[in-house]
Write a structure and sequence with these properties.
This protein is mostly helical. Helices cover 79% and strands 0% of the residues. It is built from eleven helices and no strands. Helix 1 (4-20) runs antiparallel to helix 2 (24-41), helix 3 (44-60) packs parallel to helix 5 and helix 9 (166-182) runs antiparallel to helix 10 (186-198). It is globular.
Length: 220
């Protein structure tokens, strides 16, 4: 179209779609494109959000300290523009990066902030993933609480089913099945995950579906 603002918008949202697919290289590329175009044209919001994409990709590529710093910088810059709608997503990405750095309790506190922000703003599209990550991080505490982790996974499943977000349902089912496998509840784990995995007819090259398939094979 030759319209720079529309292109920046597209770069950012294509990057977010790649985050959902866990396609780290694509996220990094679109984050770079978004930041470059925003810098050229003075788009404060798209530049800020592009830096968040860069930071998530950095963290996933083991550049965790750099990634956390970039996400925080981008969040502060985005907030300065007055936008709030994507704050729960950005906090979730920050929590994921913090977990990669081993900062589990800080990650859990950030997820609590994400849920609180979503409740106020009404932007609840990421609630299922927030609850799932809470379960994952709870299970990684130095004093893990498997029952509390299971409650978080069940909450994630319920929200995903209510919202019709099959990708988040698959992630939550995989997390719960993995927890039950560790507890020796292999049959329950398989029965939980198999029907969710069986719903999918495409995307089998994505990390989420590969992980679910591998877990089902182990539980067979």
């Amino acid at each position: 179209m030759g319209h720079a603002h529309t292109l920046a918008h597209a770069f950012f949202h294509a990057g977010v779609a790649a985050v959902f697919a866990r396609d780290i290289a694509t996220v990094h590329g679109y984050g770079n494109d978004c930041v470059a175009l925003a810098t050229e044209h003075g788009f404060a919001l798209w530049g800020a959000q592009g830096r968040i994409l860069q930071g998530w990709a950095d963290a996933q590529r083991a550049e965790v300290t750099t990634g956390i710093a970039r996400i925080r910088e981008g969040m502060a810059a985005a907030e300065a523009t007055g936008t709030r709608v994507s704050a729960p997503l950005f906090l979730t990405l920050l929590a994921e990066a913090l977990a990669l750095a081993g900062k589990i309790e800080e990650g859990l506190a950030t997820l609590d902030d994400a849920l609180a922000t979503a409740a106020v703003s009404g932007a609840k599209g990421w609630d299922a993933e927030i609850h799932r990550l809470r379960g994952e991080l709870t299970d990684r505490l130095s004093y893990p609480d498997p029952a509390k982790a299971e409650d978080s996974f069940r909450a994630a499943l319920a929200i995903a089913r209510e919202q019709g977000t099959r990708g988040y349902e698959l992630r939550a089912a995989t997390s719960l099945a993995r927890l039950w496998r560790e507890q020796g509840r292999r049959g329950e784990a398989r029965d939980q995950l198999a029907p969710v995995y069986g719903w999918f007819t495409e995307g089998f090259d994505t990390p989420d579906l590969k992980e679910a398939k591998a877990l089902l094979a182990e539980l067979a």
